[in-house]
């Protein structure tokens, strides 16, 4: 019997959300760098701290996304392994069919 997929942890739900998050990070960083041109001393330190915070958020988002992808990959690998264990002949048939198709495509060239 196949294992059910685990619930998804909190991370950007899709590519669009992740892309929006990084575009916002880039915009914020560009704005901060533009404002930093004439700053010295305490103002410059504050700006650098804001940039570090922005980059920290990006790292956290990447880490959450990486964990989500790894968990999904493990779940898919486990489900595939369960299927192969419970349906060995169907798996052999599917693999043979794919091999034949690939062989036919290669021989046409």
UniProtKB/TrEMBL annotation:
Q: Which family does it belong to?
A: Belongs to the ElaB/YgaM/YqjD family.
- The answer on whether this UniProt entry bears the keyword Lyase reads no
Subcellular localization, per the record?
Answer: Cell inner membrane
- Signal sequence region: none
Q: Which GO terms describe its cellular component?
A: plasma membrane
Its placement in the membrane is given as: Single-pass membrane protein
Give the UniProt keywords, A-Z: Cell inner membrane, Cell membrane, Membrane, Transmembrane, Transmembrane helix
Record keyword ATP-binding present: no
Q: What's the source species for this entry? A: Phytopseudomonas argentinensis
Residue intervals of the DUF883 domain: 16-67, 80-109
Q: Under what name is this protein listed?
A: Membrane-anchored ribosome-binding protein, inhibits growth in stationary phase, ElaB/YqjD/DUF883 family
Could you tell me one molecular function GO term of this UniProt entry?
ribosome binding
InterPro entries, per database record = DUF883_C, DUF883_N, YqjD/ElaB
């Amino acid at each position: 019997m196949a294992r059910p997929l685990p619930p998804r942890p909190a991370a950007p739900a899709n590519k669009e959300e992740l892309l929006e998050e990084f575009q916002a990070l880039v915009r914020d960083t560009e704005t901060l760098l533009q404002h930093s041109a004439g700053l010295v001393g305490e103002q410059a330190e504050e700006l650098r701290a804001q940039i570090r915070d922005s980059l920290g958020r990006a790292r956290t988002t990447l880490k959450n996304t990486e964990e989500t992808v790894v968990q999904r990959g493990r779940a898919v690998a486990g489900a595939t392994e369960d299927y192969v264990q419970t349906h060995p002949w169907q798996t052999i048939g599917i693999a043979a069919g794919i091999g034949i198709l690939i062989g036919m495509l290669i021989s046409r060239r």
